[in-house]
Amino acid sequence: MELKLPARAENVAVVRHAFGGFAEALSVDEQTLADIKLAVTEACTNVVIHAYERDDVGDLEVDATIDDERLTVIIRDNGRGIVPRPDSPGLGLGLPLIATLAETLELSKGGTEHTEVRMTFLLDGAHEA
Questions:
Q1: pLDDT surpasses 60 at 59
Q2: Measured on CA atoms in the order 42, 46, 94, 76, is the torsion positive or negative?
């Protein structure tokens, strides 16, 4: 699954809904689906809040692939990277939460203006519908 949307708050819900349908087609159990949707929501929200200057709207890119029984999700932006924001409305718990929910979490910055959050989830018993 590939999505490329403007990094706006309303599109976080679009991505979350897309993952609900994606996981449902794979018969993912409810708890795993809840973990995936929460982690993806947190990563996308980080893009909306932190990636771009206040009045700029950049892209929110989402890639999801399945290899064997593992889902890999990549959330990417072309913004300023993972930097502290003094006026941040959040508590700063998004990445630790994602790390708890996902099997693995990797953060990377490519070039000067590119941030990528890569998460994997084990899909025990998931089979294509």
A1: yes
A2: positive
Q: Of 93, 100, 95, which is closest to residue 75 (Cα–Cα)? A: 95
CA distance 115 to 5: 16
DSSP 3-state assignment of 5? strand
Rounded mean pLDDT, 44-57:
84
Q: In the numeric block, which tokens belong to residue 64? A: 């999801």
Alpha helices in the chain (DSSP H): 9-25, 30-46, 94-101
So what's the pLDDT on residue 90? 55
CATH tag for 2-122 (out of 3.30.565.10, 3.40.50.150, 3.50.50.60, 3.40.30.10): 3.30.565.10
Output the six-digit token pair for 77: 């932006």
The whole-number pLDDT of residue 112 equals: 61
pLDDT of 107 higher than 80: yes
pTM for this entry? 0.85
